[in-house]
Amino acid sequence: MHISFYSPPSTKRSDLQGLRGLAILSVLGFHFLPKTFPNGYLGVDQFFVLSGFLMSMLLRKPSNHSTVSSFVLRFYQRRLKRIVPLYFLVISISLVGLFYFVPDSGYESIVKSGERAVVFWSNQERSKGEDYFWMLCKGIDPFTHMWSLSVEVQFYLIIPILYLLILRFTPSDSKIQFFTLLALGSYFYSTVFCDKQQAFNSMRARIWQFMIGMIVNIESEKEIKSRRDEKLVKYGCLLTMLWIIGYPREFPDLVLRPFFTISTGILILLSSGDSILSFPILTYIGDISYSLYLIHWPFYAYWKLVLSDGAEMNWYLLTVFLVSVVVSVICYELFEKWYLKLPNKSIAFLSIGLFLSSIFVLEYNRVEDWLTSPGVGARLDGLENNQTFSFEKVTKLHRKWSLYDYRNLYAPTCHYEGSIGPLEACSHTGLDEENGKYRFMLLGNSWAANHARIFYDECKGKAKRIYQYAQAGCDPLVSHRYDLELCVPELDLYIDQVEKEKPDYLFLLSRMIDIGDPLPPNVTSLEDDPIFQSMRRQFHRIHEHVKKRMFVLNPLPDIDGTKVAEFPKK
């Protein structure tokens, strides 16, 4: 296929950098002060429109490449050389830093999140188990902001081929109509077939925003005279967007997202050379926006985990914000500018090296485990009997064993019914179904899954069936304040599972959360305590489906997970 097309060469537009600067400021406001700037997330929508504009400009730029492969390769070179080196550098450094600050229980979740990030898959939903362990480490995902870059890179995979098909099978003057139909289809998909989270993260649900940018790029070739009514439209859009970003109450995204997307397209179309958007400070913020976007969130994660002390805002937050800005400026001036001047081959080697360094950091502990695994016949923990250890060695071993809490929840005898991992229903295998006497059931949150092996060893001699049902983070008896959106529906699911199984003996083994709360003010008797009342009602609802006995096994006192690492020192 011979590729032949032409579009006039374009010069760099400073107003687009100013618009990019406004977008990153919106995102920073939303991340650092979410209650003050609850609509700041719309800055990412602006980035998608700007990205679509740039993609169209690259695809339509005059080229000497006459083959499909050379055309596609050129597109990827131009886009990925800008994104990849800094992306992998930030991942590597963030992993090294955050491994020292995130609780050990969150280690596996960081690794899983990092693995998704290095392959641009961060926009995919986490499993229930992964969500649970993010709860344990205070819910900070150091790579949560990578989702937008994952959406963008996933779109890169299809847009060159899609554009070539448009060139091949549609009239030259029908591109806008085709892009419009594609945008409408994507928007319809995002509003009808997606829930709120899917519409936010899905690449397919974001195509319409890229298409707006591409349509604007085609339209921008037409001469637009600076008329008064067009200035009113332009500044009307700009002022309305700024007002929405600064308004301290969240508006419905079903209304805001189309408005911001279309308004961004209008500003791109009408603001060429605009003095406000071309203001030097604003355009420089746009220049460093990519570094700032990648770098600010790991700093915020550090503040949230180490310096926030549970507060929504303190002086440390301002310090962390300023440090992230300074680091972003340094990174832009010394690294981004440097590698963007390198030849394509050098950038490719640099990107591969940084990618491999990210993989090395992610998999270091697994490789170390494989290299130091105990031999045949040795103890599973790799230790020797009658061996004495120092406190330092005990602490090191404790941390090593704590790193893979989620992996250790898998019971080797369990046949899991779904694909989300150990925090779901499973039936234990290897039992004597003919001679076994009783049907046992193990019920609870991760505490139940964590004790599944011990339970199996103790009960298998008398069991004809052992059924296990564990859910992430949710107590089977009460849901009072802890993640109500997830756990309140789980209360009925626990009952449904017991009713379906009808065990002879039920063992409820759960890490109690709400139960450890003090009595409410002015409550002196358990009979007046709402948590106790809820537990008793739930207990009876579960117990009526148990044939013989129900045992509630509760660890007392409740464990403070933040202090576990201190145990070896005591």
TrEMBL record:
Q: What is this protein called?
A: Acyl_transf_3 domain-containing protein
Q: What PANTHER family is this protein classified in?
A: ACETYLTRANSFERASE (PTHR23028), ACYL_TRANSF_3 DOMAIN-CONTAINING PROTEIN (PTHR23028:SF132)
Alphabetized, the UniProt keywords read: Membrane, Transmembrane, Transmembrane helix
Show which residues constitute the signal peptide.
none
Q: Which GO terms describe its biological process?
A: polysaccharide biosynthetic process
| Spans traversing the lipid bilayer | 40-59, 80-102, 153-170, 232-248, 254-270, 282-303, 315-335, 347-364
Task: Check the record and name the InterPro entries matching this protein.
Answer: Acyl_transf_3_dom, Acyltransferase_3, SGNH
To which species is this protein native?
Caenorhabditis tropicalis
Residue limits of the SGNH domain?
Answer: 414-560
